Amino acid sequence: MITTFHLPTKIIFGPGSLARLGEEARRIGPKAILVTGSRSMRKTGVLDRVVHDLKANGVDTLTFDKVESNPRVSTVDEGAAIARGKGVDLVIGLGGGSAMDAAKGIVLASTGTESIWHYIKAEVEAKSPVPSLILVPTIAASGSEANNGAVITKWETREKMVFFNPYLFARVSIIDPELTLTLPEKPTAQGGVDIFCHVVESYLTTRKAFPLTDGIMETTMRLVVESLPQVLARLDDIEARTRLSWASTIACSQFVELGGGGGARTLHGIEHPLSGYYDITHGDGLAALLPAWMRYTLPAKKERFYSLGRNVFGEADGILATEKWLEKIGMKLRLQNLGIEIERMEDMANCAVRTAPWLRHHPRLLDAAAVRQIYQDSY
Ligand code: NZQ
Ligand code: ZN
Questions:
Q1: Over residues 178-202, mean pLDDT
Q2: Which of 37, 104, 288, 371 is surrounded by the fewest CB atoms within 10 Å?
Q3: Rounded to the nearest whole angstrom, what is the distance from the C-alpha of residue 50 to the centroid of ligand 2?
């Protein structure tokens, strides 16, 4: 089997690395749009620091700070129109996965007049010149900084779609764990669950074991399992935050599948309709669904669950160990506590099958009936 590893992103990692942003941006182009969320970067003072640094490096920057969590098609289109009007060379995404994914959408949609939705549906292609992308994550969670995927929601139809495009690889990603120090407990825990799921889903659904891939995946999962409780105990623990940031950048990128292994992130496919329909936080949806998704998968992958227990938690039962860990980090959740309604489960299950074609790669049939059953078992 031939595997291709292609990651054309310069990754600059480390506490204090944010100071490199201005000079990296200057090398790319004189006109930029800075894409971020509506509150946290302004509140923490990071936005002022970044705008000042870009100005000092001669980069004429316009700030677009309207990105909401679970970013909408309409927000991306609004940002794209502004970027197009300014004729930017560079799009900078500063924030969590929502801001970074919106920045990715703006890179594509700013090259034409069509909505980003048409790019998601692969009905149109980016027109040259395509602006370059710099990403600066401020949460250890999505890993958007090291992949060419994005997740954007068409709010009118509640369709939350994952899509990939070569132009969505950042030219430069600057991962500064110091930026995550201002993140409170809840979003820190939600982000940690997201990182863990990015790896455990692929690990448990892999076609067969590959020693290098297993080594990378088990190490990355142990890093999250051990570092997250340390961070939750002391939010300003920069060493533990740094370990969490490394795990985040690796977990949803090709790095984690080096060595030829890797399966399908099917739990993500059935979570996205929940955050699409109810605008809940992605990490909460994953935490609520994980145990039932695991129990549904167990019969087809008993040996992988045993390896998970033994090599990640040092316990015999990988599912019980995972549930204990979720409890320890305050993320043992039920769908009813997240406002999910039984009446809409069938609709969401059909939406999952429609919007996540990779469900067919699950080691056990994951059709609408099975998805609905997992929702029901997580209620
Ligand atoms: O809204 P703002 O002001 O930005 O505040 C944010 C938001 O309220 C706040 N925040 C961010 N950095 C902070 C901070 N608060 C204090 N200090 C900081 N340093 O945290 C809140 C959550 O931010 P958000 O970006 O929504 O969270 P996350 O990073 O978990 O991203 C979630 C989005 O990423 C997508 C999800 O579906 C969801 O839309 N994903 C993207 C992926 C990808 N591109 O590869 C993969 C993931 O599986 C995920 O699906
Ligand atoms: Zn995720």
A1: 98
A2: 37
A3: 27
Is the CB of residue 38 below 6 angstroms from any atom belonging to ligand 1?
Answer: yes
Both tokens of 145, joined, read 């900084």
* Ligand 1 pocket residue status of 95, Cβ below 6 Å: yes
pLDDT digits (tens, 9 = 90+) for 143-172: 999 999 999 999 999 999 999 999 999 999
**The model's pTM:** 0.98
How many Å lie between the centroid of ligand 2 and the Cα of residue 196?
9
Q: Which atom of ligand 1 is nearest to the CA of 184?
A: 16
Compute φ and ψ for 281, nearest 5 degrees.
Answer: -75, 135
> What is the 88 CA–ligand 2 centroid distance (Å)?
29
Ligand 1 atom index nearest CA of 69: 26
Per-residue pLDDT reduced to its tens digit, 209-253 = 899 999 999 999 999 999 999 999 999 999 999 999 999 999 999
Distance 279 CA to ligand 1 centre (A): 13
CA distances from 177 to 16, 147, 160, 345 (A): 8, 18, 28, 38
Distance 193 CA to ligand 1 centre (A): 13
CB of residue 187 inside a 6 A radius of ligand 1:
yes
Q: To 10 degrees, the CA torsion angle through 362, 282, 152, 235?
A: -130
Q: With CA atoms as reference, report the closest residue to 191 among 99, 255, 96.
A: 96
Is the pLDDT confidence value at 274 over 90? yes
47 lines ligand 1 (CB under 6 A): no
Tokens of 141: 């969670």
DSSP letter, residue 166: G
Number of H helices, E strands in the chain: 15, 8
Residue 336 pLDDT level (bands cut at 50, 70, 90): very high
